[in-house]
Specification:
Layout: H1 3-15, E1 17-24, E2 29-36, E3 44-54, H2 56-64, E4 74-75, E5 79-87, E6 99-103, E7 123-127, E8 131-133, H3 140-144, H4 147-160, E9 179-183, H5 188-199, E10 203-208, H6 213-218, E11 223-226, H7 232-240, E12 244-249, H8 254-263, E13 264-272, H9 278-286, E14 290-292, H10 299-310, E15 319-321, H11 329-337, E16 345-348, E17 359-360
Parallel strand pairs: 2-17, 9-10, 9-12, 10-11, 12-13, 13-14, 15-16
Antiparallel strand pairs: 1-2, 1-4, 3-5, 3-7, 3-16, 5-6, 6-8
Helix pairs in contact: 4-5, 8-9
Length: 363
């Protein structure tokens, strides 16, 4: 083969390929590899990823080979924002060139492998049911902060606590005058839970560190209480006027779960983002309190996202962008491990990945 032909073959291979961050527990580390760009199947669109957010979920899967993943090797990452580059058969929701943000789930529909669905790569297949257009005034980094955190917040309020969904006719303001407590308001889930609760008409009391008080009030929280205060429970009850019926625990550590049980009235409900912890479960059982956690996917929510974000009804999380493209994953994971992420979403840009030391391989 001539040198020119070899160069052309390499260029063709690169044009039709994506850099992906491959995770295989047996190998003990994630590696960046060059893989073919996946073709969209029915119900999916191909998206070039401009920004991918890093969540605590990913480092926990990496550290503990979490059972959330059913098949390895795979591509992690659940938050992606980018541009639609190809449509699946029969798709009418999007067009090529649309700027979108979407929820990536490794456990995807039949016929689409987990390696094609993760956010930690340059191209992915986005499920049209859980993907929304990005308004013109929103950048990709901010958009990447939205999918899983906002979907989780919506799940806590409208899936687990069964409140009236605001995107339904008459749903906005359906809970005017009611009160709710959101523990961990400055977390990504907490920020969206506050805003959705306000959209539903709730008066929100939340907890956070002192540094985020003004920010959370700007999102609509009526009262913000220092999470480290020794009398936090008493302050919460003072703000709400009585034991509350509903709590969203956006952190779901042992301490926040126990705090939730302390302030919730008997037979009340606490929506968790992580599994119930044994001490909290025992305390909840004694008061007949329900600790609720579950999956929630509402096409109605995702169909309303573009309008809510465009109108400023939902403000996107603040972000911190790491340099180095996909190679920034180690820094991002470590920030979460050490508890150094507060009031912001960690984001990396896959397209900024340098090509040195890239492995040419196939999943």
């Amino acid at each position: 083969m001539s040198q020119l032909a070899l160069v052309l073959e390499c260029e063709t291979q690169f044009i039709s390929s994506r850099l992906s961050l491959i995770f295989a527990p047996a190998a003990g580390k994630q590696t960046i590899r060059l893989l073919p760009i996946p073709e969209p199947k029915e119900g999916y669109v191909q998206v070039r990823i401009e920004a991918a957010a890093i969540n605590p979920l990913e480092y926990k899967i990496y550290d503990f080979a979490h059972s959330f993943i059913e098949k390895y090797p795979t591509v992690l990452g659940v938050d992606a924002a980018g541009e639609v580059t190809k449509l699946g058969p029969g798709d009418t929701k999007f067009k090529v060139g649309d700027r979108v943000m979407g929820l990536c789930t490794p456990n995807s529909r039949e016929g689409v492998g987990s390696g094609e669905r993760g956010a930690f790569q340059q191209y992915t297949l986005a499920d049209v049911r859980f993907t929304a257009k990005i308004p013109a005034n929103i950048d990709y980094d901010s958009a990447a902060s939205f999918p899983v955190a906002a979907n989780t917040a919506a799940g806590a309020l409208y899936g687990q606590l069964k409140f009236t969904e605001p995107w339904l006719d008459g749903g906005e303001g359906a809970h005017n005058g009611e009160k709710i407590v959101i523990l961990g308001g400055s977390s990504s889930v907490g920020c969206y839970a506050i805003q959705l609760a306000v959209l539903s008409g709730f008066e929100v009391t939340t907890t956070s560190s002192l540094a985020h008080f003004a920010y959370l009030q700007s999102l609509g929280a009526t009262t913000v209480i220092d999470r480290s205060a020794s009398d936090a429970a008493e302050q919460i009850l003072g703000a709400t006027g009585a034991p509350v019926k509903y709590v969203v625990d956006a952190i779901s550590s042992v301490s926040t779960q126990l705090l939730g049980v302390d302030i919730v009235q008997p037979k009340g409900t606490i929506a968790l983002v992580l599994n119930p912890q044994a001490p909290a479960q025992a305390a909840a059982d004694a008061k007949e309190i329900t600790l609720s956690r579950g999956q929630y996917f509402s096409p109605g929510f995702w169909n309303s996202v573009e309008s809510y974000v465009g109108r400023g009804v939902l403000r996107l999380n603040r972000t911190t962008v790491l340099l180095g493209g996909l190679k920034a994953w180690e820094e991002g994971f470590d920030l979460h491990r050490k508890g150094r992420v507060s009031g912001t979403k960690i984001v990396m840009r896959p397209l900024d990945t340098n090509l040195d030391q890239v492995v040419t391989s196939v999943l």
